[in-house]
């Protein structure tokens, strides 16, 4: 390939093997801030270009930090097991956009059949438990205790 | 025993049968036991509040203002460093919530002090001056954009020669940018190269020429590159790491500001609105300040207005701020953040003026437990050499700590304009597109004085 100089034709395309994972923030973030786990080799400029060019998301500011994965756990051979390090990016969206991480496990509506089955099951378990327990008049004392 | 037994019924301890009128015990002249209060050293909320009260009494009972300031900032803990000139997005909203400030766009309507409104003022077309109702200015007789003719004012007092002031401003500008041959500015030192000296020259010449008209300016003190610091508490947080983990602490802030120029005066500027006025809402932000982003450091808790406590010029008049190269307009436009340009001016105005007025109030002996009894007013001009934004701040309350903020309904008020250019270009020894309104607003700021003078 000929050497690239500014203004010349771009004959090679670089497709970096970058991935970005949007995560739910552990601590509450402002409305315009989205939290991502990104590859350790990505820079703030890379993140901005990635979001703007591939996903057309207007990015106002990017801040990154590297989270150190702990090395304290031990396996069955007493070797230290390291949790992997990862980079976290806080992206502030431009043009006044906001983002709220969605609730991925919403409560499902139960139809009448499942509800009645659940009620029946609870009642059955209650009856079984009562059978297991002894006479309530004995005040929790086991039945083998006595004369 | 029989003798004793005979005397038994007569023992004074058992007088059931005798008629003794029981009356309430009279209160002793002085209490027999000390008052029952919470401990001082225990690890309990009552003990903590008792320690706080003892500290407050110590500060109240301090003899001099220096001693009060020393006790106020004695305990050093990690605190957020608030920078007035910041690139953080939407910083002015966060700063307003930290300082309990209401932002009112436009300039406050000034009462006509010694300048009755000119008859032509009402007929003047208000082009380009939309948020600035200035009822008292004689200069309004000149319609914007006319040629340089000095207009005599209607009303008492000597007339204001706008032509002369305009020529002063143009001279300063041309001297710095055209006549004086300077080398090319070093990388990222553009602001120190031309706009810095221009601003200094402009302000000093304008102040000198207007001091005949405003005796307060004649008694003022012009500081070059002064330092303004203020330290305060606002809100509560739980300590996250360290040996103090889990304790509830106040959130501490510190502003360390270095305005380009500052005018300090011996007399207080008059209040703009009454102390208890409510002109808007203060934004409430639930998130921690570190999300702005704002960072913590532990160092000296300084409260300083630019001079020490014993200086006679202890009140503030006007500050002049120069925006650094990092916050130039072109950079924001390149990053496609045009709406943040005004945010920079506003955050600078609000934070710097809050720090200055609050430090002035502390120099007079007020603090968060002893709230101000009169409002403290100061003005500021934020510029990047070409664009000027004007701010006026009225400090109504210093009570921002978690305990005192709910008892005080007062809010601080900041009036601010958008940034307007003073000129368009400087070419071949002449200034093109000079904007008189900006100059007039600057002159109006410098001429502001208390009513007695």
Any key phrases for this structure?
heterodimer, A: 147 residues, alpha+beta, Alpha-Beta Plaits, two-stranded antiparallel sheet, B: 453 residues, 2 domains, eight-stranded mixed beta sheet, four-stranded mixed beta sheet, 27% helix, mitochondrion (chain A), ribosomal protein (chain A), ribonucleoprotein (chain A), Nucleotide-bd_a/b_plait_sf (chain A), Ribosomal_uL23/eL15/eS24_sf (chain A)
What would you note in describing this structure?
The complex is a heterodimer of chains A (147) and B (453). Chain A is of the alpha+beta class and 147 residues long. Chain A has a domain at 18-91: 2-Layer Sandwich (Alpha-Beta Plaits), CATH 3.30.70. In chain A, 22% of the residues lie in helices and 21% in strands. Chain A has helices spanning 44-54, 112-132, and strands at residues 20-23, 33-38, 59-67, 73-74, 80-81, 86-93. A four-stranded antiparallel sheet of chain A has the order 1-2-6-3, with helices on one face. A two-stranded antiparallel sheet of chain A has the order 4-5. The longest helix of chain A has 21 residues, at 112-132. Chain A starts with 19 loop residues before the first strand and ends in a 15-residue tail after the last helix. The relative contact order of chain A is 0.14. Chain B is α+β, with helices and mostly antiparallel strands and 453 residues long. Chain B has two domains: 45-74, no CATH class; 96-107 and 162-447, no CATH class. Helix content of chain B is 27%, strand content 17%. Chain B has helices spanning 2-7, 45-60, 65-72, 91-99, 162-179, 190-193, 195-210, 215-218, 329-334, 340-363, 436-446; strands at 79-82, 101-105, 221-224, 228-238, 248-257, 261-265, 296-297, 315-322, 376-383, 387-395, 412-416, 420-421, 425-427, 430-432. In chain B, strands 2, 3, 6, 8, 9, 10, 11 and 12 form an eight-stranded mixed sheet that branches. The longest helix of chain B is centred in the last third of the chain and has 24 residues, at 340-363. Chain B is elongated and about 115 Å long. Chain B starts with a helix and ends in a 7-residue tail after the last helix. The model of chain B is unreliable at 1-6 and 112-157 (pLDDT under 50). Classes of the chains: A alpha+beta (147), B alpha+beta (453). At the A-B interface, strand 3 of A face loops of B.
């Amino acid at each position: 390939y000929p050497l690239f100089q500014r203004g010349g034709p771009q004959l090679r395309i670089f497709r970096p093997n970058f991935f970005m994972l949007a995560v739910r923030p552990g601590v509450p973030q402002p409305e315009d801030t989205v939290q991502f786990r990104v590859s350790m080799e990505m820079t703030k400029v890379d993140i901005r270009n990635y979001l703007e060019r591939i996903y057309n998301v207007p990015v106002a500011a990017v801040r990154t930090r590297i989270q150190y994965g702990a090395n304290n756990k031990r396996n069955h051979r007493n070797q230290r097991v390291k949790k992997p390090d990862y980079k976290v990016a806080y992206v502030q969206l431009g043009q006044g956009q906001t983002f709220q991480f969605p609730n991925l496990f919403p409560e499902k509506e139960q139809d009448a059949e499942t509800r009645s089955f659940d009620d029946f099951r609870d009642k059955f378990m209650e009856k079984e438990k009562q059978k297991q327990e002894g006479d309530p008049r004995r005040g929790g004392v086991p039945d083998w205790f006595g004369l | 025993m029989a003798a004793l037994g005979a005397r038994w019924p007569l023992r004074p301890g058992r007088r059931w049968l005798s008629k003794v009128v029981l009356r309430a015990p009279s209160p002793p002249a002085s209490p027999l036991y000390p008052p029952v209060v919470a401990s001082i050293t225990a690890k309990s909320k009552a003990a903590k509040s008792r320690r706080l009260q003892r500290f407050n009494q110590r500060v109240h009972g301090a003899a001099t203002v220096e001693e009060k300031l020393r006790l106020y900032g004695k305990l050093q803990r990690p605190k957020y460093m608030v920078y007035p000139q910041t690139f953080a997005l939407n910083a002015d909203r966060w700063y307003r919530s930290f300082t309990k400030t209401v932002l009112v766009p436009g300039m406050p309507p000034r009462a006509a002090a010694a300048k009755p409104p000119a008859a032509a003022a009402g007929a003047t077309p208000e082009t380009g001056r939309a948020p600035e109702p200035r009822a008292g200015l004689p200069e309004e007789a000149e319609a914007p954009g006319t040629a340089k003719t000095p207009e005599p004012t209607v009303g008492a007092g000597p007339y204001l020669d706008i032509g002369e002031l305009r020529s002063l401003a143009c001279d300063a500008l041309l001297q710095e940018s055209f006549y004086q041959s300077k080398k090319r500015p070093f990388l990222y030192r553009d602001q120190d190269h031309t706009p810095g000296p221009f601003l200094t020259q402009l302000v000093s010449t304008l102040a000198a020429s207007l001091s005949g008209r405003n005796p307060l300016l004649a008694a003022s003190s012009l500081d070059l590159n002064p330092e303004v610091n203020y330290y305060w508490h606002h809100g509560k947080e739980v300590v996250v790491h360290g040996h103090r983990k889990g304790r509830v602490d106040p959130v501490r802030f510190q502003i360390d500001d270095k305005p380009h120029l500052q005018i300090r005066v011996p007399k207080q500027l008059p209040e703009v609105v009454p102390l208890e006025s409510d002109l808007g809402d203060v934004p409430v932000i639930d998130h921690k300040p570190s999300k702005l982003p704002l960072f913590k450091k532990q160092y000296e808790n300084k409260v300083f207005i630019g001079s020490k406590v014993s200086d006679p010029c202890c009140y503030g008049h006007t500050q002049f701020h120069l925006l650094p190269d990092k916050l130039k307009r072109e950079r924001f436009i390149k990053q496609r953040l045009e709406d943040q340009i005004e945010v920079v001016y506003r955050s600078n105005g609000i934070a710097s003026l809050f720090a200055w007025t609050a430090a002035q109030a502390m120099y007079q002996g007020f603090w968060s437990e002893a709230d101000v009894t009169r409002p403290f007013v100061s003005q500021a001009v934020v510029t990047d050499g070409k664009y000027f934004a004007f701010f006026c701040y009225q400090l109504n309350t210093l009570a921002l700590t978690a305990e005192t903020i709910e008892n005080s309904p007062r809010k601080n008020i900041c009036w601010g304009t958008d940034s307007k250019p003073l000129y368009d270009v400087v070419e071949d020894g002449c200034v093109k597109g000079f904007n008189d309104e900006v100059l007039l607003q600057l002159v109006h700021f410098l001429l502001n004085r208390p009513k007695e003078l």
